[in-house]
Design a protein that fits this description.
about 300 residues; Nucleotidyltransferase, domain 5; five-stranded mixed β-sheet; about 45% helix; globular
């Protein structure tokens, strides 16, 4: 059976096409379209998909629909997350996509998003029975999951995605100490539920889920470890070195940084600030990065349901 999974995020729409056979799958094709649904001023904080972003999103899904048609898939699952989930004009967007791209969008809750991210990470990384903190940095929301290889202990989605923070705080170039402190104060207030849970569990490992974390891997120049299917182990000294350099950089300096793709140049500073906040407020001493996330988690659930 050939299945297409679409992850309709705030910054990118990602497509993964796989062939499923018994309890395994083989990747056939993957593609990505940059949409930046929250790019226009205040649109994401006002819970609206701007006319420009609306058109970018529809065009992107028409492009991805053409790829799906070319590969003759048996089933399509299109999962929409934070930006579409929160948008007041989401039904207009869903209707237009159904009309033009012939794709039916399913909006998933933040809790469901976190669950799928967990299953994706579990496919990529060799987890044990000890508790891990999984962190997924999106454009509209960040998901946090405390889990072991066998169960989810706690999960929650927070409206703290980097596109949302960028719109709220409008950091200077480079970010000022005042704005840096304001972001940290905001994270402290918003992440109290997570900070409470972190005190309950003896967590040593943070697993970063694709997206911005993959950019960090590329910026450090880390090669994939041979003992993981699609995961990386990052030395925290390497992480803190590149983090310090990036947080205090100008946009012009980030243009020259190896491994940092153009799409993430504006948002990577807030990604580092968010990760640093977690490392500072926990007992975490190890950092892993999973190349898998929601799409792979949806495939895992597909196995489970079929």
């Amino acid at each position: 059976m050939r299945v297409a999974i679409l992850d309709l995020g705030t910054n990118t729409f990602s497509l993964l096409i796989v062939d499923i056979q018994q309890n395994t799958y083989k990747e056939v094709h993957h593609a990505r379209e940059v949409v930046k649904l929250g790019h226009e001023s205040e649109s994401i904080t006002n819970n609206i998909i701007s006319p420009e972003a609306f058109q970018r999103g529809v065009t992107a899904l028409c492009n991805l629909a053409a790829i799906i048609k070319k590969f003759e898939v048996d089933a399509v699952k299109a999962l929409a997350t934070s930006a579409i989930r929160e948008a007041e004009n989401r039904q207009d967007f869903i209707s237009e996509v159904r009309k033009q791209a012939e794709i039916n969008i399913e909006i998933i809750s933040g809790a469901k998003e976190a669950e799928l991210i967990y299953y994706g990470n579990r496919l990529a990384f060799t987890m044990t029975e000890e508790p891990y903190l999984i962190m997924d940095i999106g454009g509209g929301s960040n998901e946090f999951i405390i889990a072991s290889n066998s169960t989810i202990l706690w999960k929650q989605s927070f409206k703290l995605g980097v596109a949302r923070l960028l719109s709220m705080f409008k950091p200077e170039n480079p970010i000022s100490e005042k704005t840096l402190q304001a972001v940290n104060n905001y994270l402290t207030a918003e992440l109290q539920p997570l900070l409470t849970e972190l005190k309950k569990y003896n967590i040593h490992t943070l697993l970063g889920s694709s997206g911005a974390f993959e950019s960090i891997v590329d910026m450090i120049g880390k090669e994939k470890t041979s003992d993981e299917k699609s995961g990386y182990h990052i030395d925290l000294e390497d992480y803190f070195m590149i983090s310090k350099k990036t947080v205090h950089s100008t946009s012009q300096q980030r243009e020259l940084m190896p491994g940092l793709i153009p799409m993430r140049r504006d948002m990577i500073v807030l990604s580092y600030i968010s990760i640093n906040f977690i490392l500072k407020n926990s007992s975490i001493s190890k950092l892993g990065v999973s190349a898998y996330s929601l799409k792979e988690g949806a495939i895992s659930m597909f196995f489970k349901n079929h």
